Amino acid sequence: MFSDLLAQHFVHTALEAGAVVAVVSGAIGIFVVTRGASFAVHAISELGFTGAAGALVVGIDPIIGMIGGSLLVGLVLGVLSLRGRERDSAIGAVLAFGLGLGVLFLSLYHGYATQATNLLFGSIVGVSDRQLLELSLVSLVVVAGLAMLYRPLLFASIDPEVAAARGVPLPALSVAVFLLLALTTAEAIQVVGVLLVLTLVITPAAAAQRLTARPLLALALGIAIALVSTEGGILLSLEKSWPTSFFISAVSFAFYVAARVYDRLR
Amino acid sequence: MSVVSVERLGLRFGERVLWDDLTFELERHEFLAVLGPNGTGKTSLLRILLGLLQPTSGRALVDGRPPAELRARIGYVPQQRVFDRDVSFRGRDLVRFGLDGHRFGIGRLARADRARIDRVLDDVGATTYGDAPVGRLSGGEQQRLRIAQALVADPTLILADEPLLSLDLGYQQVITSLLDERRRRAGTPVIFVTHDINPVLGLVDRVLYLAPGAWATGTPDEVLTSETLSELYRTDVDVLRVRGRVVVVGTPDDQHVHHVDHAH
Predict the structure, then answer these.
(1) Which residues have C-beta within 8 Å of that of residue B59, sequence separation ≥ 6?
(2) CA distance A215 to chain B (A)
(3) What is the domain count for chain A?
(4) How far is A201 from chain B (nearest CA, A)?
(5) In CATH, what number is assigned to the domain containing residue A225?
(6) Hey, are the CB atoms on A154 and B97 less than 8 Å from each other?
């Protein structure tokens, strides 16, 4: 039965989409973890959900709504570029209200409930060829953006005072990274759903950073762990019909725990 | 030609005037200590010299040019701030950023640059922990790396903002002697913002003392006197020399007496 499924076109598409999303998520995750912006990822994804739910109500493509919602939050967070406690509480407040709106939109929406469920928990096996193409194009934009901003972005995340002294434009970088993050989040939502975006954007990067202090190696490991988690999760869900996103989160969490143990023991 | 020339520099925030005619020059090989209580614009002066803050009037030139044009040649040592234990990058990454962190792209490190980073790590005595995660190092070790970061791009000027804060005495000496060595060997002048002159008293050629609404510059013996400081503060201030240390008594905040870890 397993090999039969593997021959199916939708399974191939799912694996390809998973790979594309894993690469961008794992890559941007390193910058997010270095900046200490995990909570912002959560906010962006939940408000992506609000955008998608709003789109469902007015009858447009929920993915458009989702990208719109994520980009808006990404832009606001980038422009404010708050730090520390203030950022934490501001994000919490915005996130709570955004979710409330999402709940309202869902109650106003009288279509198929599955679309809403897919948003929350992901629907990788439902990805069409066209969506795969869209995912790939967006990923190319994000990866190109990250490659271009690599050095100043790490510099600004690790050492903002000296970076500013060397002329690195911190506010512009902040906006850029949050916009790229919003695009990545909108992608990851389609694979693992709103509630589990962190499992692709944060967990692999956090694991990678416990394995090495070399920035480029951490980047490569983060991408590798995200890839193995996603593809492994999809394959496991073919074998046993539990939700794909559960398996993806389980594999990436296993990597995280193992990495922490390794870090403690060495 | 002077490395730094500050001409009738004025800075005000709203109604508050910090200074309106600050003027001084800094030559090669010179070590200038910037002293004064909080809120007199010590850090703002550094920000102007980095081209990050526009003065209200006057101008500051580094090597005869506006500072924003040669930021990459200004070595900057920020206030000592310990990195989180969890941060995941190495000492040599921190140092490397001083060389090319402001450039776009991932950037492969050329052989010459790698050698340069090794050399500067060796200069500051950080070779043994250059590959260790920065978060695991002590505050003093981290500050050595910051000196290496400031030196790696072969700067024409070094700006240091309270680099000794919360370091123990041994490390204070290490950090100041590293800066001293650099200006002796390469002639790179140093502007050193500090609330306590004593750790650098033996090195300082000149002092710029910023007081609320007034300033003075000259050798330590000229500026750190009861007469000069009383005039600056417009009240009776006593400057005492005790066992080779300078103790200032009677300033509104008595900062030199309780100089241990003033919160900023």
Answers:
(1) B6, B7, B8, B9, B66
(2) 6
(3) 1
(4) 17
(5) 1.10.3470.10
(6) yes
